[in-house]
Amino acid sequence: MVRILDKAAVQPRSRFNLSNSFTIKRSPARSRLATIRIRIPVLNAQPNRVELVATIGVQGVTGIAQILFRIFRDGVEIFNTQQGIESAASEQNYAVTFQAIDRNVRSGNHVYTVTAENRTANTRADIVGPISFSGLAVKTRT
Question: Where do the domains of the chain lie, and which CATH numbers do they carry?
């Protein structure tokens, strides 16, 4: 049996929109995409997990960019995944979705942030939307 401890969701961009796009920064710089806050209560919250889901709309502009998506809890990286994004003469528009699970998070308020960075020189990929990021904290069985 699981019990919901907290949930949070943001959707800073609700649709694909080229006129509102921005370029993903080149590593080691990062583009911050979304932030949520999750509260783990002090009492009866262990063991637990925070289930995180992000969907990011990306467009390849030049070359084949390797985009590294990261999730941070309180400024510390807890998850990452990489996605190749092709450009002209191929697929250009992607909705990249990924999920991470953060286990046995200590009590208190926690800030989760999702970022993107382009790891490939001489390529370009843009965030075109949508952007959504959600977290669900649950107490799991003992």
Answer: 3-139 (2.60.120.760)
